[in-house]
Design the sequence.
């Protein structure tokens, strides 16, 4: 198996439930030896978002993964499921889920952590997964040399990062032909200046997973109700059931960016021609083809979407790392072809 991909995930977890599923997916892929999560940064100004990430990291046996949070950033949605999970108690009034992040032990500022993490990594070794607004990444590019590196933000990014996998914009034909203020994608319009700055100045390739891709891949409520029963309490299943009235199927926007970041060479998705995703001051994003461009976007067929629903259902609900049959699961997942969705079953991970 190839060397695990080093990932940094930048997330606005709490605004939607797919961030939680995306983090669960990443942890399972790490257990399978396919990636290594070296840090998580929060791009919404809500301590509970960092606390929830700490809960997830601890649940998967990786409490040591560093977490950073934006300072003076957009607060986003309240994220009731964050608070529900963090404060969930047993019959004796004790918190069910361990959490290292507290009011008295807050995480460092995201940009500072990002510079530290990147400076420590080999050149061209890190993949950035952006599943929220571009606030942290834009601020990172604007940084000056510091105690961690003598390079500017753009120089450090160019040296250490090999790819950005970003859930952002909408590249569907109908939206590209007739973009309106109503169909602007959330991760872009919540912080338009940062999106415009980052995607204009990012010195490495960016592969976008647009809004239209995740909309074709609906995470099934049935999986939440059945596949997480191997444990009495699961921070993702608990969050999913609080986010909206059950049962509901939710688009897998952020999960697609994680999967592509780890397996860009697989045929889970199609890929557009090269070009530039131009962010206008209104928050509308237009894609202009250019063979010299650093931007591309994912596409997905109905067959690929069917495979991905089953794949995500199994991976996100995988049992605790100590209980996973590593090689058997990895071999099965890596053998899946997007044109053969029948190879994947949608029941529990015991079917691997």
Sequence:
């Amino acid at each position: 198996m190839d060397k695990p991909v080093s990932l940094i995930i930048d997330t606005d977890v709490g605004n939607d439930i797919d961030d939680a599923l995306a983090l669960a997916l990443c942890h399972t892929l790490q257990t399978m030896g396919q990636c290594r999560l070296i840090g998580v940064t929060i791009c919404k100004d809500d301590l509970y978002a960092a606390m929830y990430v700490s809960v997830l990291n601890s649940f998967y046996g990786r409490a040591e993964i560093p977490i950073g949070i934006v300072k003076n950033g957009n607060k986003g949605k309240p994220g009731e499921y964050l608070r529900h999970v963090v404060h969930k108690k047993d019959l004796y009034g004790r918190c069910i889920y361990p959490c290292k992040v507290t009011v008295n032990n807050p995480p460092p500022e995201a940009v500072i952590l990002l510079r530290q993490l990147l400076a420590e990594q080999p050149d061209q070794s890190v993949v950035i997964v952006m599943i929220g607004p571009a606030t942290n990444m834009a601020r990172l590019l604007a940084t000056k040399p510091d105690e961690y590196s003598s390079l500017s933000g753009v120089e450090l990014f160019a040296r250490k990062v090999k790819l950005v996998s970003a859930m952002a914009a909408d590249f569907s034909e109908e939206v590209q032909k007739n973009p309106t203020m109503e169909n602007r994608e959330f991760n872009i319009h919540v912080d338009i200046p940062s999106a415009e700055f980052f995607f204009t100045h990012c010195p490495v390739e960016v592969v976008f997973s647009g809004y239209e891709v995740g909309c074709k891949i609906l995470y099934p409520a049935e999986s939440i109700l059945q596949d997480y029963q191997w444990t009495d309490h699961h921070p993702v299943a608990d969050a999913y059931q609080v986010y909206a009235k059950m049962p509901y199927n939710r688009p897998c926007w952020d999960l697609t960016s994680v999967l592509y970041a780890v397996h860009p060479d697989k045929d889970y998705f199609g890929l557009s021609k090269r070009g530039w995703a131009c962010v206008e001051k209104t928050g509308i994003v237009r894609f202009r083809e250019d063979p010299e461009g650093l931007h591309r976007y994912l596409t997905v067929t109905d067959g690929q979407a069917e495979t991905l629903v089953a794949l995500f259902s199994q991976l996100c609900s995988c049992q605790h790392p100590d209980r996973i049959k590593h090689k058997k699961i990895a071999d099965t997942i890596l053998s899946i072809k997007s044109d053969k969705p029948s190879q994947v079953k949608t029941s529990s991970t015991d079917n691997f």
Notes: The longest helix spans residues 302-316. The radius of gyration is 19 Å.
